[in-house]
């Protein structure tokens, strides 16, 4: 049950409205998470800026796979629904790849290295081993790419924590709960 209400359009603070309207136009509707997050223009716009910047890194399949892996570890059922939907409809990942990503893997070796590394980052709170760092580098990722993976982990964790705290009403197709796979 939601712990705070998603805002109606007329309730959105002026400093959140432009950002929320842009997302809504792009997606085709206003997700409850965003309508809730918009209550804090500072936090919402900071997240939106990070999201916009990181949407230019790596490729969509890798980004969505990282989102799935991180959301599974953080137990965020709202984000698992969102990322599963995005992975299927935007990244065009088949169901078996979505399930692999939730487990921290991918069938593509390079993407697998990034997803495994992202899962290690969240599980160890960034205390990865030299071998973990070597594995992602050996797969062809530069240090700049590795920094982008870490930033993606942090961004997805932000929305995971937000949704776990406020539990907005689900508005994407339900998937198996975190830990159920």
Automatic annotation (TrEMBL):
This is Carboxymuconolactone decarboxylase family protein. GO terms for molecular function: peroxiredoxin activity. InterPro entries: AhpD-like, AhpD_core, CMD-like, Uncharacterised_peroxidase-rel. Residues 45-109 form the Carboxymuconolactone decarboxylase-like domain. It comes from Mesorhizobium hawassense.
